[in-house]
Design goal:
With about 160 residues, the chain is mainly α. The protein folds into two domains: about 40 residues, no CATH class; about 110 residues, no CATH class. Helix content is about 55%, strand content about 5%. The chain is built from five helices and four strands; from the N terminus they run ββββααααα. β3 and β4 form a beta hairpin. α2 packs parallel to α4. The chain is rod-shaped, with a radius of gyration of 24 Å.
């Protein structure tokens, strides 16, 4: 039997749907077996198909929400806070940034949006520190822990 797309190639493979002879170069492996390129038509799940417009909207939402949350973080907690309470601040910060990115991207998900949300959390930390007077303090280990937990929550919101 000869491949339908490559007549010079001999093959024993056939499309599992239409029976067209296919060679190893043109077969597409699908969850239900080997298919010809016409029958496979594998597409991404719409939830993870993020277009550039959604990325721009998500980036803008991450910047705005990060800036607003950074100002709120500085105003409501000017002198710091205990570890236990800081954990809840981190959870709220991560969820708020993740949710704003999700809403701006029409509830899409994916690695690009996760990176944008992580950037929004970092923006909130930088805004908080800028209002405090030092952009990146050297002795703010607890702030780094809050940012790390908030990033984990924001990324988890967009998986």
């Amino acid at each position: 039997m000869q491949c339908a797309a490559h007549p010079s190639v001999e093959t024993e493979l056939a499309c599992g749907r239409c029976g067209t002879p296919i060679c190893p170069r043109c077969l597409v492996q699908t969850p239900v077996g080997a298919r010809c390129p016409d029958c496979a038509k594998v597409r991404r799940v719409p939830t993870y198909d993020v277009r550039p417009l959604f990325l721009v909207r998500a980036g803008a939402a991450a910047l705005v929400s990060g800036a607003v949350l950074g100002v709120a973080w500085r105003l409501f907690f000017p002198l710091g806070f205990g570890f236990f309470f800081g954990f809840f601040v981190a959870l709220g910060l991560g969820y708020a940034v993740g949710e704003s990115v999700s809403l701006a991207a029409n509830r899409k998900r994916g690695p690009a949006l996760q990176g944008i949300a992580a950037g929004g959390v970092v923006v909130s930390y930088l805004v908080r520190n800028a209002l405090h007077g030092v952009l990146i303090p050297s002795n703010d280990v607890f702030g780094y822990v809050v940012v790390a937990v908030a990033i984990i929550v924001a990324i988890g919101r967009l998986r």
